[in-house]
């Protein structure tokens, strides 16, 4: 399959509790004026980045840092569209806006329990910043190979943070994907 052929309605089905809710949502989106349809732009931009992240396992198995990169690109793009930001820069700030302002409380609850070190649990902001630092390690230094996150069958792995701090991860890549997928839908709903 090619990225240009994403079936967007099918792609977002996991963000809805039932098919009827999904159909109503997409009918509303498609009913908006086509010129500058921000809801549709949000859904398309996020889906493309999430779709790419989904394909990483095929070419770089067990390298979640690459998936995190694409999920955070999606989060940043969505927040910039919502905020009408058209300048350069501001990536970290917009990733924070996505998770802190666009995502809902259940998403933030997952992030608030995502990481801890020997001294404390990370706050939502600290978890976001930790994920953003992973993104930076991939983008700026090509470091994508020394991070593991749990999956539904794993124990919780210890990971080393940027400042050589040892953390325990309690968030899976599937959890992060779900947050970005559902957060993108929440952003699009602002325009209906």
Q: Indicate the proportion of strand residues.
A: under 5%
Q: Give a short account of the largest sheet.
A: 3 strands, antiparallel
Tell me roughly what share of residues is in helical segments: 55-70%
Question: How large, in whole angstroms, is the Cα Rg?
Answer: 17 Å
The total of beta strands comes to 3
Number of helices: 8
Average pLDDT score:
90
Distance between the termini: 30 Å
What does this structure look like?
The chain is mostly helical and 192 residues long. The protein has one domain. Helices cover 59% and strands 5% of the residues. The chain is built from 8 helices and 3 strands; from the N terminus they run H-H-H-H-H-H-E-H-E-E-H. The protein has helices spanning 8-11, 19-31, 38-59, 64-83, 91-102, 105-112, 124-141, 173-189, and strands at residues 115-116, 158-160, 166-169. A 3-stranded antiparallel sheet has the order 1-3-2, with no helix packed on it. Helix 3 (38-59) runs antiparallel to helix 4 (64-83), helix 3 (38-59) runs antiparallel to helix 8 (173-189) and helix 4 (64-83) packs across helix 7. It starts with 7 loop residues before the first helix and ends with a helix. The model has no long low-confidence stretch (mean pLDDT 90).
What is the topology?
Elements: H1 8-11, H2 19-31, H3 38-59, H4 64-83, H5 91-102, H6 105-112, E1 115-116, H7 124-141, E2 158-160, E3 166-169, H8 173-189
Antiparallel strand pairs: 1-3, 2-3
Keywords:
3-stranded antiparallel β-sheet, single chain, 3 strands, mainly alpha
Question: What's this model, at a glance?
Answer:
The chain has helices spanning 8-11, 19-31, 38-59, 64-83, 91-102, 105-112, 124-141, 173-189, and strands at 115-116, 158-160, 166-169. It is mainly alpha-helical and 192 residues long. The chain contains eight helices and three strands; from the N terminus they run H-H-H-H-H-H-E-H-E-E-H.
């Amino acid at each position: 399959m090619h990225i240009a052929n994403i079936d967007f309605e099918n792609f977002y089905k996991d963000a809805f509790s039932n098919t009827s809710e999904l159909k109503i949502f997409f009918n509303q989106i498609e009913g908006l004026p086509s010129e500058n349809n921000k809801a549709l732009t949000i859904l398309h931009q996020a889906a493309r980045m999430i779709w790419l992240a989904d394909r990483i396992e095929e070419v770089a198995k067990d390298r979640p840092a690459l998936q995190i990169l694409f999920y955070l690109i999606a989060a940043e793009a969505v927040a910039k569209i919502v905020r009408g930001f058209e300048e350069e820069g501001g990536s970290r700030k917009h990733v924070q806006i996505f998770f802190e302002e666009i995502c809902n409380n259940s998403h933030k609850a997952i992030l608030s329990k995502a990481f801890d070190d020997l001294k404390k649990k990370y706050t939502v902001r600290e978890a976001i910043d930790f994920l953003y630092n992973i993104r930076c390690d991939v983008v700026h230094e090509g470091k994508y190979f020394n991070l593991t996150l749990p999956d539904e069958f794993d124990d919780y792995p210890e990971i080393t943070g940027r400042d050589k701090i040892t953390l325990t991860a309690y968030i899976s890549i599937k959890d992060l994907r779900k947050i970005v997928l559902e957060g993108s839908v929440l952003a699009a709903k602002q325009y209906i």
